[in-house]
Hints:
This protein is α+β, with helices and mostly antiparallel strands. 44% of the residues lie in helices and 19% in strands. The strands form 2 sheets. A 3-stranded mixed β-sheet has the order 1-2-3. Strands 4-5 form a two-stranded antiparallel ribbon. A hairpin with a 2-residue loop joins strand 2 and strand 3.
Amino acid sequence: MKVSDILRIKGTTLYTTTPLAPLADAVQTMAEHDLGSMLVMEHGDLVGILTFREVILALNHNGGSLGQATVRSAMDDHPITCSPETELDEVRRMMLERHARYLPVLSNRQLMGVVSFYDVAKAVVDSQNFENQMLKAYIRDWPAEEGVKAT
């Protein structure tokens, strides 16, 4: 399974912000739309990612207030990315190694979407469920051997 398979099912609705946007506005958008991340774009290029982790760190650093902070002051400006052709096993490895919950998906520098740890876990579970159903159907239709009664 590839990242493109997840995006096809998930859809490609994206929420973005700019580095100079007020952090409080980005947090409000994240809360209103139940987002775990927002991509930070500048001049059409991905320049960072803002996740709830960065927001919590900013709150801690500022004594529980976002104040006048900008997105740039809190964002991860070196997010790991993948392509639509990246295999799911590689995405899992990347996420685990970098402790990343969200991976922007780029194709020739064009933003295609975001995959989350949840998206990956759901895809794995769905794939395993399908495989289990196929195996059970195969076993159920197994031809009986001669001289052995089917139960």
